[in-house]
Amino acid sequence: MVALGREGTPADAILGVVPREVVEPATLDEAAEVLAACARDGRAVAFVGGGTELELGAPPRRLDVLLRTARLARVVEHAPADQIAVVEAGLPLGELQRRLRPHRQRLALDPPLAERATVGGVVAANAYGPRRHRFGAARDLVVGMSFVRADGVLAKGGGKVVKNVAGFDVPRLLVGSLGTLALIGTVTFRLHPLPEADRTVLVPMLDAGGLRALAAALGQAQLEPSAAAALLTGDGFQLALRFEGFPPGVAEQAQRLFALCERLGHGVEPLEEEGARAFWARHNAARSGGALRARLTFPRTGLEPAERLALRPLLASLGGAAAAIYPTLGVAFASGEPADPGAAARAVTEARAALAAAGGSLVVGAAPAEVRARVDPWGPPPPGLSLMRRVKAQLDPEERLAPGRFVGGI
User: Fold this and answer.
1) What are the residue boundaries of the FAD-binding PCMH-type domain, all occurrences included (predicted)?
2) What is the pTM of this model?
3) For 109, 125, 310, 403, which has the most beta carbons within 10 A of its beta carbon?
């Protein structure tokens, strides 16, 4: 068996599993050659970009080769008039935004740790931030993709070239698959104009019912924030609404919000630039800090029971706990430090059961090994698991791509 790269070290480990070798191809052709060699020798492979989502999922069952995408970081094409960019998977999202800024454009994705997260990792995790309220998640902004299959064949899908495998829309399947189906090579994104004005308004004192009602009233009041996120306080919530666009439109939207909050009996606090930066920094810390991080989903109309039966009890098991809530989406992110792994694991299990009873879910995005040993990060198998297994069998029949990392041991 021919060596493909340098020897793996503990710094290269994925959830404690150290790879035998680490490779960093400089081109997609080189990456395809690596995967073809792994296919011939039956070696298991996993892919790493910025490493911001490495703790999501389960440890790989085996890991022979770790393929780092850091050198696959080119902007292949940018068509400003068409608002389209084609970029390699290893390009950090922050760097892409800097390349687009002179053209007054952006990719409207704002996950935490955007400076370090690569576009391939963001797509593989279907990551998003508070701008999902208006622009959607990674899945909604991907137009097309090139990818390297488990057998080393370079393929394309979406955009101008549509080449599906075994009847599947492969690019759509790769979004959120955590690298278990193929190596993302390049991604074609739909872009948006950079806004001329950006204003954040804080509604500082809300209980769960007030937060739910205000979030539901936004559409009826013809309010179109680009982002909507709340932070959990001691006994309530602070909701921030971000308005972006042309100055007159942003000013009008802010006035509409003031009028709506006055009717509902809520105070408002327009934030200056420094205050807005501080709020969004706290939001990002709630999303990315803490040894234990979890994503909770619930019906948008069910915020009160989700807070009472799942979110608050989970946070009570953590030190330095924080939470960010997207009330218009029915999603919350909880984080903190588990002083007692057993108590934290029980809190995860109980919160997961409470959410499931209402049609929601809980995914553990990160946790110490002592907690991971007690809970499945994904929770109970989803109804579509059999279909997911069929897709895996078609695209990676030997189960060599990040085996065991995804839902149901895929």
Assistant:
1) 15-194
2) 0.93
3) 310
